[in-house]
């Protein structure tokens, strides 16, 4: 059974409605980026990262190809193409006792994929911060 929060995450990915992040993220959520070596702590910075990802990674080639669920954990493997480079990754999502996302970890491969994700996410985050 897919947790309600993950169903909302899928809806966000499909519609790019990042307002849903307010509903599904815990206030003390931790975000683990594949290119930033420190954990990003808190709802606002996590919203910024996931909003940027929804605009860059979740393009018309993005799809989840495998999903594994546990009581309070989801592992979602994805594939996408960015600037002609195939990217394969995994979203590892932990839920707290309220069913909200408490930990969001993204892992990406191969190296060319990491490099292009780093580039486009950097551009998207800069654009968000300039607003």
From TrEMBL:
Xref: InterPro entries: NTF2-like_dom_sf, SnoaL-like
Residue stretches making up the SnoaL-like domain: 7-103
Highest taxon of source: Bacteria
Annotated Pfam families: SnoaL_2
Name of the protein described by the UniProt record: Nuclear transport factor 2 family protein
Species in which this protein is naturally found: Sessilibacter corallicola
């Amino acid at each position: 059974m897919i947790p309600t929060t993950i169903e909302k995450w899928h809806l966000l990915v499909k519609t790019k409605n990042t307002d849903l992040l307010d509903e599904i993220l815990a206030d003390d959520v931790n975000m683990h980026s594949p290119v930033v070596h420190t954990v990003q702590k808190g709802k606002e910075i996590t919203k910024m990262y996931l909003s940027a990802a929804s605009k860059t990674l979740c393009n018309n080639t993005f799809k989840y190809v495998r999903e594994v669920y546990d009581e309070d954990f989801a592992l979602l493997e994805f594939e996408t193409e960015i600037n002609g480079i195939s990217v394969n990754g995994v979203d590892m999502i932990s839920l707290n006792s309220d069913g909200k996302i408490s930990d969001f970890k993204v892992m990406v491969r191969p190296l060319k994929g990491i490099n292009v994700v780093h580039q486009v996410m950097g551009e998207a985050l800069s654009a968000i911060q300039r607003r």
